[in-house]
């Protein structure tokens, strides 16, 4: 598109900057009603051009403030990807040269018996 309509903002950009904020806080920050903000996020109404710009600038100011205080942004929490939680319990730590126990045996290897706590 050679000449995009500059009156409206990108709804994906607004959704990106709105992540982690409640609808009430976002409406108060933008000085609009919760209904307007909900309509913009759902795609029912077009987003005015100034909304993503304002959110982007406030995000940049926040990053600058944190950088001036020598505080970095918190990293998102990471988790195990691709393994369902039920399979995680079957994973065993690698101990020395013993990579795994015999799958037919329920007894742990000799190295693991010495290092594991005993519950009795």
UniProtKB/TrEMBL annotation:
Q: Where is this region: Disordered?
A: 78-120
Instruction: Quote the protein name from its UniProt record.
Output: Helix-turn-helix domain-containing protein
- Lineage of this protein's species? Bacteria, Pseudomonadati, Pseudomonadota, Betaproteobacteria, Burkholderiales
